[in-house]
Every structure is written in structure tokens, then in C-alpha cells.
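[job 4471] stage=fold_predict status=RUNNING
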Amino acid sequence: MIRLKSRQASDHKDSDAAAETLAGAVPTAVAEDLTADDEIAEDVTKVGEALSLEVDAPDGETATVIDEPDCDEPLAKGRRRISWSRVVAYGILPGLAMLLACAAGYVKWQEASVRGAQAARAESVRAATDGTIALLSYRPDTVQKDLEAARARLTGTFLNAYTQLTHDVVIPGAKQKQISAVATVPGAASTSATASHAVVLLFVNQTIIVGQDAPTNSASSVRVTLDKINGHWLISQFDPV
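[job 4471] inference complete, writing C-alpha cells
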């Protein structure tokens, strides 16, 4: 009986040792299996990455494909910055340059127009004054020469009317009656002036001497219209007011 118990105890101890050995071996085996699985998965991942980076190119060559970065937000910001820079470079800056050029051109044109108008006023007033004095001044011995020279200051229908009046009335009467006349212009003002047309208001005094008689004085106002032809201001109308 004692031997049987010892054998049973020994058998029981052997069973416990085998169980412990089995219990220790199972986790080790499982761990080794899991490690092997992880290594296989890692190898598969590496192969997949290699395959994703290399594709077949024409003629059997291998082309390397570089994946684009996954950072969409920084890329979008970069694209927006590039887009705005192009808008500024090709849209806003040329527009501003054009506006500045137009503004500078307008200012320059305006200054030129003002200077041109001022010059036209001064020139037309001087031409109207000199022309009026020439038209209304003569001496009996030089009347024909004086009045024909004055015709060079006239144009249009007024030239024709003045030519007929002087030839038919003024020149013969001045020679016959020894008439002389002297005109002065104490005041002149420009009423309008452009680059080619002007109107001037004149205050005219004229002194007339007939033979041995005492001189007579007269004062009048005249509106003189001038046109600029071939660079010269010529009188086209001569209207008493």
C-alpha cells in the first residue's frame, strides 16, 4: 500500500511537472508564432511599398514614382499664395501702372490745354489790336499802300467786303479830300479763345483829319472774330457793338 501511494504521488508530481512545462511552452510557442506573423506582415508591407514605388515603364524600364505629400492644407495655402502673387503681378500692378499713366497723361494734357488757351488769348488779343489799328489808320499820300497792307490781316467774307469798301470809297475819298485817320486801342479783352478760333472785344478811339479842318475824335467798341490759319491769327469778322 505504501508503495502504491508513493507511485501515485510520483505520478501526481510528474503530471504537475508536465502541466507546468506545457503551460510554459504554449505561451512561448504562441509568442513565437505572433512574432513570426508580425515579421511576415512587415515583409509584406515592405514589398507593397516597394511595388507602390516602382511601376513598369515602356521598353522594360523601371520608373520610380514619387508619392505626393499628403499635407493638403499647406499645399492649398501655397497654391493660394502663388495665385494671389500672379493676380498682383499680372493684374493689379499693370492696372495701377495704366491708371497712373492715364492720370499723368490727363494732367499733362490739361496743363498743355491751359497753356495753349492762355497763349491763344494773348496772341489773338495782340492780333486783333494790331489788325484794327492797321484797318482804321491811313494817310492821304499812302492810303492805297496802307490799306492794301492791312488786307493781309483779314480772311473770309470780311476780306472781300473790306477790299470792295476801300477800293470804292476810302482810297478815292482820302486822296481827293486829303483825309487822314489814326486809330488807337486803349482797351482789349478776350471773350473766348481756342487753338484756332477767338473772339476779342476792343475799345477803339479814332482821330480823323479832313484837309485843314480840326481833327475829330470818335470812340467805339468792336467785337473782332479771328481764325488761326497757317499759324497766323486773321480777322474774319469786324462788328461794332
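[job 4471] summary: The first strand starts at residue 54 and ends at 56.
[job 4471] exit 0
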